[in-house]
Write a structure and sequence with these properties.
The protein has 19 helices and 44 strands. By secondary structure, it is an alpha+beta fold. It folds into 3 domains: about 290 residues, Beta-galactosidase, Chain A, domain 5 (Distorted Sandwich), CATH 2.70.98.40; about 210 residues, Glycosyltransferase, CATH 1.50.10; about 70 residues, Maltose phosphorylase, domain 3 (Sandwich). The strands form 12 sheets. Strands 1-2-9-10-11-12-19-16-15-14 form a 10-stranded antiparallel sheet, covered by helices on one side. The radius of gyration is 28 Å and the shape is globular.
Length: about 800
């Protein structure tokens, strides 16, 4: 069952009805100011950091599920009112349409002969969002309408805002000047920053106190101000700061009017001394021209057009034309778009992430680079240096850091022993794409401490040493708190019934080992060796370490038909045929093969055959089998999930592309593409009543075959699935793969494909690629044959014609 359709020409997903199985969201903003917005205008906005600079409130896990947002109300002179975005009044509209586009959303509806369409977007280079409401009277007579806007301000720190009521009910401050509502509540210390909410039309009234707008014991579906048709002019003093404008408009038959709203964040320069210390007014001199500009419709039109041009440029980095429409749609539009969002957000804020508990992930952000680096390499460079600065002197890493402060998150801490190796893979991806070797000489501190600077290359070396200095009884890397699977906590143990202990990497006896990290180490060591060779630096020690670890995997990580997963605190094997449950796990099968382990001796092919037999389902590859049927202390959180969900036998989509890449490495194009299609959102659109999540972006998880809801997705948008699937399809199946020495063209296609074409920008040059079957293999660059499959980097600004015959 479908709830909408793709409009590929306009790069939009069009939702036909508001009652989607779950709120289907989109993101506003690409730089510093961001927001999430659902298909019924739910969501919130923030500046840079969803926890520390939250502009508006949102209520997660509520009823209805999507509560709080950018709401508008329309009211006729006879007292009937409705929301043109369906929420929050849920009036049965005559028609409804939501168009989620690239960094914008447009929601339109018709009711009682009044057509309303609202465009929401964040202009490039600005810290504000624009709402453009377009009203058309389709009746045969004139109509008088009242328009009410509504947002609820958050008191900046979203966690404190949601918990510290004894303080916050006394701190709310607003100011209204020239029709603009300014939210100026300070958090802890005095700052000259504020939010504002403005309207393009003369106001009939306004409200800034939530309870005055809603009325006692009322919710957003029937605000007393809207019901009565008159604002109160309330000014919030403590309690709940709110923003609402009241505009009256008369529309003649067939007439269309536009009303603009601007919600934004402003921070005056620290050296701007406009007001005496302690002043209770907001200085508006710098922000007023910005507000006035974006209330002009011609400026809105120009800004929206500029946003579209920006996405033309970003998506132009790679465009493909293959025999499969779902592949084209995802590669050319939606997967690339999701890569931008995951780069900006990491795992911090979505419909499933509150923006409070998680910041930017060390592991996550490095992987997100894989799908983003070709779009804006300079931003990827900046992100790498930010990530590396949170690394610890040991070579370990804070698992997460806050985007505003760029400091490690002590609440989450460190000890996830896979984290440091991801930095090597992220930096390698950046250099391969950009050819920028200078980044390796950049001085970067440890733990953001001045005076601790070392070159980025030194950070990479320390990342590798971190693993080598933490090997367990079998010579495999210690898992620490966890590896990629945060829920596989193998240093849990109990010597006394009813007592449990969690060791850390430094605790006595924390000896659980990870085969997954071993495979990751082989991959990272070989990547660092390649970088070293290009720099003319010693590389043999890295190659030797990789070879030795591969031998250790063969000796202690191979179970006869697949790679084992780990060894627990007491030395018991995990992911073995000898186990009663959890016999085979997906992660080491993918990571070990990506590292090249078992490729030459054929064990890789055996492991992949075991995956297909034991783990593959129509909805994707499940994480392990059999699922754990009861809680096991020695395994940690993984066994706390019911069978078939999340890490306990769920389809953790993030790991599926590793198997696609592994299949491509062993030359199985049909197998690789088969796995790609199983979780491709576009290909799953017809299953929307089962899948439930958005059909235009990847989800983190799909319920596995042990679950009663097999095929149901959760945790959409912010997932490493996006970057890894993009890498799997573009770099391994289509085979257009950046390398240190140039652009490799080595496709591993499904047998039924006659070929494909692509346009790829690489280091400033544009490659026009044609891949076709037939005849003997040849690779022509501008008509001249070349040996091998690596295209030399062409001068920036040149156009290169490439033809590969398979």
């Amino acid at each position: 069952m479908r709830f909408g359709h793709f409009d590929d020409d306009r790069r939009e997903y069009v939702i036909h009805r508001p009652d989607t199985p779950l709120p289907w969201i989109n993101y506003l903003g690409t730089e510093a100011y961001f927001g999430i917005i659902s298909n019924t205008a739910g969501g919130y906005s923030f500046y840079r950091d969803a926890r520390l600079r939250r502009l508006t409130r949102y209520r997660y896990n509520n009823a209805p599920f999507d509560l709080g947002g950018r709401y508008l109300y329309l009211r006729t002179a006879d007292g009937e009112f409705w929301s043109p975005t369906w929420q929050p009044t849920q009036t049965e509209l005559d028609d409804y349409e939501c168009r989620h586009g690239l960094s914008y959303t447009r929601i339109g509806s018709r009711y009682r002969g009044i057509r309303a369409e609202t465009l929401y977007f964040v202009p490039l280079g600005e810290t504000l969002e624009v709402w453009r409401l377009k009203l058309t009277n389709e009746q045969q007579s004139a109509v008088e309408l009242s328009v009410f806007s509504s947002i609820e301000f958050c008191l900046w720190d979203a966690q404190d805002d949601a918990t510290n009521f004894q303080r916050n009910f006394s701190t709310g401050q607003v100011e209204v000047a020239d029709g603009v509502i300014y939210h100026k509540t300070e958090y802890r210390e005095r700052r000259d920053h504020f939010a504002y909410f403005a309207c393009s039309e003369p106001l009939e009234g306004f409200d800034t106190a939530r309870e005055s707008f809603l009325g006692p014991y009322r919710s957003w579906d029937r605000p007393v101000v809207v019901q009565q048709g008159e604002s109160t002019g309330s000014i919030a003093h403590g309690w709940q700061p709110h923003g609402s404008h009241h505009v009256k408009v008369t529309l003649q038959p067939g007439e269309t009017r536009e009303i603009g709203f601007v919600l934004g964040y402003w921070e005056n320069p620290r050296d701007a001394k406009f007001d005496p210390p302690g002043s209770q007014t907001v200085d508006k001199r710098l922000v007023r021209p910005v507000i006035e500009r974006w209330l002009r419709q011609e400026c809105v039109d120009e800004g929206f057009a500029a946003l579209g041009r920006r996405w033309d440029e970003l998506l132009g980095g790679l465009q493909v034309d293959t025999p499969d429409g779902d592949t084209n749609r995802m590669v050319n539009i939606w997967n690339a778009y999701q890569n931008m969002v995951t780069f900006n957000m990491s795992r911090s804020t979505s419909f499933y992430e509150s923006g409070i508990g998680r910041g930017m992930g060390f592991r996550d952000s490095n992987q997100d680079l894989l799908g983003f680096v070709h779009m804006i390499p300079e931003r990827a460079r900046e992100r790498i240096l930010d990530i590396a600065a949170t690394q610890l002197p040991t070579g370990g890493a804070y698992h997460q850091y806050q985007p505003l402060t760029k400091r490690g998150n002590n609440d989450i801490g460190s000890g996830f022993n896979d984290d440091p190796l991801w930095l090597i893979l992220g930096v390698a991806a950046y250099i391969k794409e950009s050819g920028d070797w200078s980044i390796l000489e950049e001085p970067v501190p440890y733990d953001n401490q001045p005076g601790s600077e070392e070159s980025l290359y030194g950070h990479l070396q320390r990342s590798l040493r971190y693993t080598l200095e933490r090997l367990g009884p079998h010579g495999l890397p210690l898992i620490g708190r966890a590896d990629w699977n945060d829920c596989l906590n193998l240093n849990c143990f109990s010597d006394t019934p009813g007592e449990a202990f969690q060791t850390t990497e430094n605790a006595s006896g924390g000896v659980a080992e990870s085969v997954f990290i071993a495979g990751q180490f082989v991959l990272a060591a070989r990547e660092l060796a390649g970088i070293a060779l290009c720099l003319g630096r010693p590389a043999q020690e890295y190659l030797d370490a990789a070879e030795k670890m591969a031998g250790t995997i063969a000796e202690h990580g191979w179970d006869g038909a697949w790679f084992r997963r780990a060894y627990d605190f007491r030395g018991n094997v995990i992911g073995s045929a000898s186990n009663d449950e959890g016999q085979i796990f997906i992660e080491p099968q993918g990571m070990c093969v990506m590292g090249g382990v078992g490729v030459e001796d054929g064990t890789a092919v055996t492991a992949l055959a075991s995956v297909r037999e034991r783990l593959a389902t129509p909805h994707g590859i499940i994480l392990q089998q059999p699922a754990y049927s009861s809680y096991r202390l020695e395994l940690g959180e993984i066994s706390s999930y019911p069978p078939g969900y999340k890490e306990n036998g769920g389809i953790f989509c993030h790991t599926n592309p590793w198997l696609m890449i592994a299949e491509a490495i062993v030359g199985n194009g049909d197998g690789a593409f088969d796995y790609y299609k199983r979780i491709n959102p576009s290909a799953r659109e017809a299953l929307s009543e089962v899948h439930r999540c958005e059909p235009y972006v990847y989800a983190q998880m799909i319920a596995g075959r042990d679950a009663p809801t097999h095929g149901e997705a959760k945790n959409s948008w912010l997932t490493g699935t996006a970057a890894w699937n993009y890498a799997a399809i573009t770099q391994w199946i289509l085979g257009i793969r950046p390398e240190l020495e140039g652009l490799r063209l080595a496709p591993v296609l499904p047998s039924g494909w006659p070929g494909f074409t692509a346009v790829r920008r690489f280091r400033g040059a544009t490659y026009h690629i044609t891949v076709e079957r037939g005849g003997s293999r040849s690779l022509l660059v501008d008509g001249a044959p070349i040996d091998g499959d690596v295209l030399p980097a062409a001068p920036a600004g040149t156009e290169v014609t490439v033809t590969l015959t398979l």
